[in-house]
Amino acid sequence: MDFISILSIFVLACFVGYYVVWSVTPALHTPLMAVTNAISSVIIVGALIASAAAGSPSAKWLGLIAVALASVNIFGGFAVTERMLAMYKKKER
Amino acid sequence: MHEAAPINPFVALAYLIAGVCFILALRGLSSPASSRRGNRFGMFGMALAVVTTLVTHEIASLPEILGAIAVGGAIGFVTARKIAMTDMPQLVAAFHSLVGLAAVLVAAAAYLNPEAFHIVDAAGEIFAVSRIEMGLGIAIGAITFSGSVIAFLKLNGNMSGAPIMLPGRHVINLGTLAAILGLIAYFVTDQSPWVFWTVTALSFLIGFLLIIPIGGADMPVVVSMLNSYSGWAAAAMGFTLGNSAMIITGALVGSSGAILSYIMCKAMNRSFISVIAGGFGAAPEASGGAAKVDRPWKRGSAEDAAFLMGQAEQVIIVPGYGMAVAQAQHALREMGDLLKAQGVRVKYAIHPVAGRMPGHMNVLLAEANVPYDEVFELEDINSEFAQTDVAFVIGANDVTNPAAKTDKTSPIYGMPVLDVEKAKTVLFVKRSMGGVGYAGVDNDVFYMDNTMMLLADAKKMVEEIVKSLGH
Fold first, then answer.
1. Whether A36 and B256 lie within 8 Å, measured CB to CB
2. How far B305 CA sits from the closest chain A CA (Å)?
3. pTM score
4. Are B428 and B266 in contact, with CB atoms under 8 Å apart?
5. From A62's CA, which of B112, B248, B378, B390 has a CA 20 to 30 Å away?
């Protein structure tokens, strides 16, 4: 992809983010932080590419450590979000 | 810029779908009812991104990769299961630091093995644009990491929450930031290792320096800000890889953190710059505190409180960080149940900065099984205090201080506060009369005729009230 296409995606995504996040109810701001944490670990994609590539052993090991760190976040972030969201209940009537 | 990478349209599509799933994950949080479905979208998007990457790259080391995922995943999962809800701010700070460190490692790996990322030209030089993206990625990642580590230590109590003020820190910080930006610019013309690693080292340093002068009460802003940084770091790496899932996510997370920081700053009537500059609550402020000496106040007992609330038509409970520290949320819900059984209407009022992170009180109340439709935000409930019989303030202080509305010299002047003083009776649970809130300001509510101070540990007091209500 050329730089301008990437930049377009980025700028539009910023606007989407702006409107989507303002619509999040304040009661769910903590789960919001936990889930944004989990999804920002999509950086694992870069870590996977680094650790998959042959060529540089040091880059491979850095990549593997990054894969492990991002995995902590992905599993931990989604699991803790799920745990929190399960607690939000309406009045039983 | 990335023409070197052969792009399979299906791969690009898969990453785009992953990005859209992440948007839906955040969109789901607009109401508790749709939130869990949103979270599932997030998980699906992540799985899609990971699998797509794995099947479209030559993998030289699959067992190691799966091992790394298993180890990291297990640690994350167990932590998420075990963590106490009161410790969420620490956990989130710790998770931020991991995203930051992962970004640093990925940027470093890209620097060491640029061929794998298709960011080199025929001569083996890294593209100029990629160098800027990498430089920014590693700088933001490193700042996120070291800043989050400090935030974690402060929130976890391993480090004093009091701001640490270095002399001349503004000059040092601005100088370091300028040096980082200058070196990233220079990196475009010279890709030698010393430039890259100096940027990394300076960025780790500035992360520490930026967070140590920020006090405990400002932590909601800091945690939100670091949340934002972790997003921008992911976006920068997304640019390097030309990966739409990473860019969309980075932009989402970046805006999310920025908006939360803005909401938190607004709720404290402080500018973002003044929070970053740090030092709030460091020096005792002159105003308000002066009048503190020996004003008359009334002390009440648990029985008095139980009687007053039992007679009330409506009780509004105002929880704050002190409730979290005392772990009083379960006892509080029990108290609410007993009151409701006696025909009292019970509502909860949450100030945006109550607690140590955005929405912290809501999670704790949800944990204690308080239905979310009994919990209200400041602007939705503030007008109700005037028609309320009892305002029950537990572990909150500054967010109820009327000085914010009237006293122009007060350090919290202009901050939106809950109008508890308008209720017929205010019951104020507090450990002792000595301590004042984070802002170091005395609260006039303590000395009002219609206020009764309940001096005790929050949890013990509520449990005693529950006992009295039971009779």
1. yes
2. 25
3. 0.89
4. no
5. B248
Chain B residues inside the 8 Å CB shell of A24: 26, 29-30
Burial of residue B292 (CB within 10 Å: 0-12, 13-18, 19+) is: middle
Look up residue B441 and give its two tokens.
């300001």
Any idea which residues of B carry the catalytic annotation? Answer: 398
Q: Which of B376, B451, B449 is nearest to B418 (CA)?
A: B376
At A49, list the tokens: 């590419």
Contacts of A78 in chain B (CB under 8 A): 39, 42-43, 46
The shortest CB-CB distance from B110 to any of A50, A54, A78 is to A50
How close B135 gets to chain A, by Cα (Å)? 15
ipTM, 2 dp: 0.94
Buried b (16+ CB within 10 A) or exposed e, B213-230: bbbbbbbbbbbbbbbbbb
Express each pLDDT in B347-368 by its tens digit: 999 998 888 888 999 999 999 9
Per-residue pLDDT band at B7 (split at 50, 70, 90): low
Q: Is B359 helix (H, G, I), strand (E, B) or coil?
A: coil
Contact B255 A17 (CB under 8 A): yes
Predicted confidence (pLDDT) per residue in A26-36, tens digit: 999 999 999 99
Torsion angle defined by CA atoms of residues B445, B296, B322 and B389, in that order, rounded to the nearest 10 degrees:
-50
**Could you tell me if A4 lies within 8 Å of chain B, comparing CB atoms?**
no
Q: Which amino acid is at B328?
A: A
Are residues A76 and B76 in contact, defined by beta-carbon separation less than 8 angstroms? yes
The answer, for A57 touching chain B at a CB cutoff of 8 Å, is no
Nearest CA in chain A to B71: A68
